[in-house]
Specification:
heterodimer; A: mainly beta; 7-stranded mixed β-sheet; B: 107 residues; mainly beta
Chain lengths: 122, 107
Amino acid sequence: EVQLVESGGDLVQPGGSLRLSCAASGVTFHNYAMLWVRRAPGKGLEWVSSINGGGDSTYYADSVKGRFTISRDNSRSTLYLRMNSLRAEDTAIYHCAKSDCDSIGCKLIAFWGRGTLVTVSS
Amino acid sequence: DIQMTQSPSTLSAPVGDRVTITCRASQSINNWLAWYQQKPGEAPKLLIQKASTLESGVPSRFSGSGSGTQFTLTISSLQPDDIATYHCQHYNNYPIMFGQGTRLEIK
């Protein structure tokens, strides 16, 4: 059974940093591109970033480009999201998600984690 | 960027009713359209991909249709277990975009 478990969400001040983690199990992790998707309070889902199975190709939404960094450790079956220069508008539940294939072009989300809450407030 | 417009934002219908949710893309997405169901406090779940392909295990009362820029999700007979928010998503290219979501309630 596939499981994606996010952690690292917290209350952080504007301008602060945070690193989210997503532990995957029940899946051959390096075979799949992975994504982060967030949902702000009262809003719809927003794609944040994607990374291919090998970890050497990434894409970012314009809203986070230059501030967030996606990475993965295939030996630990873990996905990361480093978030710097956080803003109030980054407040959201952050979901880790698995695509259906391994290249950066794999953009269908086949499976989601429950998410971790990030709150940016002073 | 391809924008996705989903409607309605909220839908209330009695059990047994046929319900339809619409998603419109700002340009053609070559049927690279997915529908997700998200129940309160849970992770979203993939229901339909490629506009009309039902995922394994999804009840047959769910169906997807459309092409080009206009797509619909239909529930043929609404059940209490269908209470959720439904999201459309295009995966034609980057940036991936979602619709605003439709909250489905039982009347």
